[in-house]
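Researcher: Here's the sequence for the chain we discussed earlier.
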Amino acid sequence: MSSPVPPDIVEIERALSRVAHMLTRFRQHDRTVVAAGVPVDRAAVPLLRALAENEGPMRPGELAVRLAVEAPHVTRQVQRLERAGYLERVPDPDDRRCRRVRLSGSGLAAVESIRASGRRWITGALAEWSPAERERLAGLVNRMVDDFEAHSGNADTPEAGTPDAGVTGAGSPAAAASGHAGSGRS
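Model: Thanks. This is the structure I predict for it:
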């Protein structure tokens, strides 16, 4: 027999489900990405953000691991984004047979536009909150994401089937809204 779930855990799970649903709906994509003037689909945004947050070019396989998606998904997105001029392939210094991808100048501008649009939306939505309340929320959300990642056993790939699998990581709803995942990175 399972033990009863504390009411606060039930409320946290319910709130996270509501946030995840709201932020991943197509209308939210329109409010931020399309409003930013960046004609990419929702699946491309986490990939662009991951490249923007990385110190340098990445192998597509590294992107797949970071985003916790299958490699063919990343390959398709890389091809689309490269054709659109947002990404460019560069030689891999560690293996001449491989290529890495990085943001082009227009890719970096696209990420900045998406971030700015998302931040405007968040600012409007939290307009009635005091700066102290927003700061507390940011601290608690970052702490929660860090703890979810630590609990999953791998900060880059949440375990399938765990509560955090749908709400953390670079492609997460929280990351999509804030422009990052984890403690205070932007």
